[in-house]
Specification:
Number of strands: 13
Order of helices and strands: EEEEEHEEHEHHHHHEEEEEHH
CATH architecture of one domain: 2-Layer Sandwich
Strand content: 15-25%
CATH superfamily of one domain: K homology (KH) domain
CATH topology of one domain: GMP Synthetase, Chain A, domain 3
Structural class: alpha+beta
Distance between the termini: 157 Å
Radius of gyration: 53 Å
Length: 375
């Protein structure tokens, strides 16, 4: 069995597990450990837990429990961090660099100094690193961070009057959207829903799931509902108090509870009775028409056969009927000499093309008329 302890290096920072080995530790103790960045001093946030050695074989062992000399070294390092911060800020101002220094952290053995800064874009800080390395004679690392991490490192008081959540207990940032503010019926005013970092408040995520669960039991705004005494449209819903504001058809506003709603505001469908037909005096109601029985296949065949026979008889009688020709007057047929030879009927000829008028006073062939000699 091995003793597993959870350590944090900064307040509200990330937590890491280490193997305590045979060292007796309690919650709140400071220990010296070896990390990827170097030697550091951390604080226990949870009491030691006993677990099997095979499941945590890759954990790093704690070097020792921090002594008074180690704590004094931590105090000296904090003073060096303040001096390095002031020196770096002056160099940034002199070089008019578009960046903002946030914090400086030294390793426990002073082997490296990390400078955290914010900037809108990429910054060329090679000359700045040369000045810092020449002054402090240690390794220099420049790390760019976001505005939320800046608020976490700097700290401060929020609009609620309490210490910022990110710098007091919030260890990891969760994504926050405007939908969370709308679900909680908050005013979409940037000054009221934004934190010190300029982003949406982290506390909007705390009660979002609760509001979503409670809203399922309430009607949506704009829905028509019905109570025992009135029918109206839902205007507002207060999830915390359970009050629902209704707007009636006569523009009257009333406040009801969720339990007073009995259903939707659609009118109830009433069954309509069948209206008997109006009968004239002396007229008796007609009985329902009886359904004729279906014909059998044999009867259908007989009927088709008889209809076919009647059709053939009528067709034969029509053929045998003599055709009577009515005498017509003998009219002489006028046939042209050209068509008389061929025996074809005369075709109607046209003396002009379509669209061309025959010249007035001209010859039949369209020529110029010859002048007439006087008598």
């Amino acid at each position: 069995m091995s003793h597993i302890v959870t350590i944090q290096f900064t307040k509200a920072g990330k937590m890491y597990d280490f193997d305590a080995g045979t060292i007796e530790l309690a919650k709140g103790d400071h220990v010296v450990v070896e990390t990827e960045r170097g030697v550091g001093v951390g604080q226990l946030v949870k009491p030691p837990e006993e677990k099997e050695a095979g499941a945590n074989a890759a954990l790093t062992l704690i070097k020792r429990k921090a002594t008074a000399e180690d704590m004094a070294t931590v105090e000296r390092i904090s003073q060096k961090e303040q001096e390095a911060y002031r020196f770096c800020v002056n160099r940034i101002i002199e070089r008019t660099m578009p960046m903002k220094l946030v914090k400086v952290e030294y390793q426990f053995d002073s082997s490296k100094a990390v400078f955290f800064f914010t900037a809108d874009g990429r910054v060329d800080f090679r000359d700045l690193v040369k000045d810092l390395a020449h002054s402090f004679h240690t390794r220099i690392e420049m790390r760019q961070i976001g505005v939320r991490d800046e608020a976490k490192m700097t700290g401060g008081i929020g609009i609620c009057g309490r210490e910022l959540c990110c710098s007091s207990f919030l260890r990891e940032f969760q994504p926050v959207s405007v939908k969370m503010a709308k679900e909680q019926n908050l005013a979409l005013n940037p000054n009221k829903i934004s934190g010190q970092c300029g982003r949406l408040l982290c506390c909007l995520d705390y009660e979002y799931e609760t509001y979503c669960c409670l809203r399922k039991n309430f009607p949506k705004s704009g829905k028509r509902v019905r109570t025992v005494n009135a029918v109206g449209v839902v205007d507002k819903v207060n999830i915390l108090t359970g009050n629902i504001t209704l707007k009636l058809d006569d523009n009257k506003i009333i406040v009801i509870k969720r339990d007073e709603i009995v259903g939707d505001g659609t009118p109830l469908a009433t069954p309509t009775a069948a209206v008997p037909p109006v009968l004239s005096p002396g007229q008796t109601p007609q009985r329902a028409r009886e359904r004729k029985p279906e014909r059998r296949p044999e009867q259908r065949r007989k009927q088709e056969k008889t209809s076919l026979e009647s059709y053939t008889l009528a067709e034969s009688a029509e053929k045998n009927t003599p055709v009577q020709v009515t005498p017509q007057e003998n009219k002489p047929a006028v046939v042209s000499t050209e068509n008389a030879k061929t025996g074809q009927p005369r075709k109607k000829s046209r003396s002009r093309k379509h669209g061309h008028r025959k010249p007035s006073g001209g010859t039949p062939d369209g020529g110029t008329p010859t002048p007439s000699t006087g008598a």
